[in-house]
Amino acid sequence: MVAASLAGDLLLARAQGTAPMLNFLLRPLRFLAQSLIGNDSPRQTAWAVALGMLAGLLPKGSLLALLLATSLFALQVNRAAGLLAMGLFSFAGAALDGFAHRLGSMMLTWPSAQPAFAWIYDQPLGPFWGLTNTVVVGQLLVGLYLFYPVYRLSLAAAAYLQPRLRDRLMKYRVIRWLKGAEVGAQWGLES
C-alpha cells in the first residue's frame, strides 16, 4: 500500500515535471537501501571498509587523503560502507593525533628514511602529498598497520550480516520500492 502510494506520487510528480527533484531527494535513500541489500559481495564490502578506514584516518588536507577517497569511488566496492567507515574512522583519527604525531616524528627523523622523504618533497607534487607533516605520516603508518586486520574483520562481518540483513529488509515494501526506484530512474522516469 505504501509502495503503491509512493509510486503514484512519483508518477504524479513526473506528470507535473518535478520528478528530477524527487529523484534527487530519494537518491541517498536508494543508495543506502542498495548498499544494504545490493549484490555486493562481502569482499567488495570489506575492501570498501578498509579503504574508508585508511582515508578516514588521514587528515583531509593532503593529496594522499584525496587520492584514497577518489579510489573509493573509482574501484568496484561498496561506496556506502566505505563512506560510513571513512566518517567513523575520521573521529578515531582525531583521537589518535597525539600518538600519530609521535610516530610520524620518529619516522621523519629516522636517518635512513630522510633521503626518501626529501626526494618525494622535491617532486612536482611532493609538497601536496603531506608527507612532511608528522600527523599525516603517523596516521598513514597506523592505517597501513590496521589495513589487513580491518579487512579480515569486515569480511567476516559482511559474510555473516549481509544475507540476514537482506532477508530482513526485503520484507518491507518501502525498501523494495526504493530498490525498484533505481530501475525506474534508469528507464526514463527521471528525464
* Rg over CA atoms: 21 Å
**Global mean pLDDT:** 80
Q: How would you sum up the global shape?
A: elongated
Q: Percent range for helical residues?
A: over 70%
Structural class: mainly alpha
Indicate the low-confidence ranges by residue numbers.
1-5
Strand % is under 5%
Largest sheet: none
Distance between the termini: 26 Å
Number of helical regions? 9
The number of domains = 1
Order of helices and strands: HHHHHHHHH
Query: Care to count the β-strands?
Result: 0
Descriptive tags:
single chain; 191 residues; mainly alpha; 9 helices; 80% helix; 0% strand; disordered N terminus
What is the gist of this entry?
This protein has about 190 residues and is mainly α. The protein contains 9 helices and no strands.
Could you outline the blueprint of secondary structure elements for this entry?
Elements: H1 2-16, H2 19-37, H3 42-57, H4 63-74, H5 79-95, H6 97-108, H7 114-122, H8 134-169, H9 173-189
